[in-house]
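Q: Structure tokens for this one, please.
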Amino acid sequence: MNDASETVYLLKPVTYRYKKEIDVTQSLDYGLVAEDVATVDPNLVACDKDGQIETVRYTAVNAMLLNEFLKEHKAFVEEQRKVANLQATVAQQQKQIETVTAGLQTVSAQLELNKSRTENRSEQPVGCGRASDGNCSCARMKSRLRFDDGQFATRSDAGFESNPRLRTGGELS
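A: Here is the predicted structure, written as tokens:
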């Protein structure tokens, strides 16, 4: 049947009431006007021996409706499959985002730790220079290299020997 069933999209359903001679109660009914159906597809109506349109071939219309329903159902199932694939992709990407975020948090924490270590090193007292890294723990040197406000001189205090804020309390060794 393939695309032949798409004819049903051109049909216009109507409500109607039979004449009193046919239905005394004249209850509301639903259907198609045979003459309108014949203009859309003459194969969907039945004619009398004189060629006059008598009725709609509802069994043929029903078969076309079923075909269209099955095509739509197949398309719907395909869309569901696509949605499931997209959901799986989103879940995978979410996991990747979480992994990258955790990695960034780790790197950020390491950077903060390194930054604080660097700041702490630059604020440490200047040593006598005997240690290979310049961080001598010589108490005598530390006690002599203080600013007037009591803070230790640090590596960042270049030229501390001539710094007027610095009181040495003696000679530098």
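A few notes: The chain has two domains: 2-75, 124-173. The chain has a mean pLDDT of 82.
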